Amino acid sequence: MFGFVKILLVTCSLCIHAAVVYAGQESPAGAQTLESMPVERGFFIYNGRYIPPPYTIAFDKNGISINKFPLSSRAQESICTQYESDNEYGQFYLERNRQTMVMFWIERDLNADSLLIINQSNQACLLPSYTTIQIMEVIASKKRNEEKIKILMNIPGHSFASWEWKQIIASIQPSSTLQARIAAVKEKNAYFRNADDQHGGVKYQVLAVAGLVLSVLSLGILLSHHPKNEGTIKGRNNSSEAVKQVWYAISLFIALNLYDLISTLVVMKNNIELELNIIAKTMLGTPLLLVCFKLAACGLAALIILKYRHYRCAQQAAWWSCVLYTVILFRWATVLV
Predict the structure, then answer these.
(1) How would you classify residue 15: left for phi > 0, otherwise alpha for psi between -120 and 50, otherwise beta?
(2) What phi-psi label fits residue 6: left (phi over 0), alpha (psi between -120 and 50 degrees) or beta?
(3) Of 292, 286, 252, 269, whose CA–CA distance to 207 is shortest?
(4) Most buried residue, 86, 104, 253, 276, by CB count within 10 Å?
(5) What is the DSSP letter of 197?
(6) Are 329 and 217 in contact (CB under 8 A)?
(7) Cis amide bond preceding 54, omega within 30
(8) CB 232 within 8 A of CB 311
(9) What pLDDT, in 10s, does the model give residues 130-173?
(10) Do the beta carbons of residue 164 and residue 48 sit within 8 Å?
(11) Which residue, 216, 248, 258, 235, is CA-closest to 318?
(12) Positions of E strands within 71-130
């Protein structure tokens, strides 16, 4: 029963994510084209040329492209190599879904104000936002080109040669629009850093204390309302006590899920990734979608358990679900402290 619920939740979440993140369109040849939602953030340099946003990442019979600029197999392999060690889905999944994962990594990182550079040798590199600010500030500055190249070569995280930086610098005109974008990204990052220094500690401590209190209450409820192991797991238990225990468990299950959701949203604002659910992890860049998914998954699981609340399997599933989320709460409390 519980396995069926998990399979149903996974299937529903994948359908929701596919419908929201990617819009399926049909090309004239009849082959399916996948296009991401337009990305208004990040920076993209292609063959020494700065491409302004928005960025649309597409996949069709010709492969992956960004704003109609194709990503060669070598560029895709460069991105896979860069993120392979951090791939939480496993090597088998990566091999079967390589192009999908490349699209996901590019879209996620651009939405986090990263810099994607693809050089003439078809090598690609995604640089994090703090490195992006350093690089773009140097490129848009009024320093001499030789001085810019020297500074860029000393910035870690890339493997580009000096002649490639020279080509990039020559192709980019430091317009007021570009400088405004760089300043906005820098200000936002500084704001989050200062906000974290001033308020992050107190905010995390409050969450940690709330998590510990809720964990203790949860343990008390679980220990005092443990379902009896009588009869077969597939049998029925229509006693009022058993049904009441299911209601207690479901109420606790919803409270624990809400705490997990709030904690995820709080740390996500400070670019800290602690999500264990591999499906929810793909939605960290879109908080609204993450909230909808978690609330829908929690609500659906609660409704299914309540529907079969007279069966021992549902009574056991409700209790063990709360045990699992109590462990997750302990993890949140220790991490936030």
Answers:
(1) alpha
(2) alpha
(3) 269
(4) 253
(5) I
(6) no
(7) yes
(8) no
(9) 788 888 888 888 888 888 888 888 887 677 788 888 888 887 77
(10) yes
(11) 248
(12) 115-118, 124-127
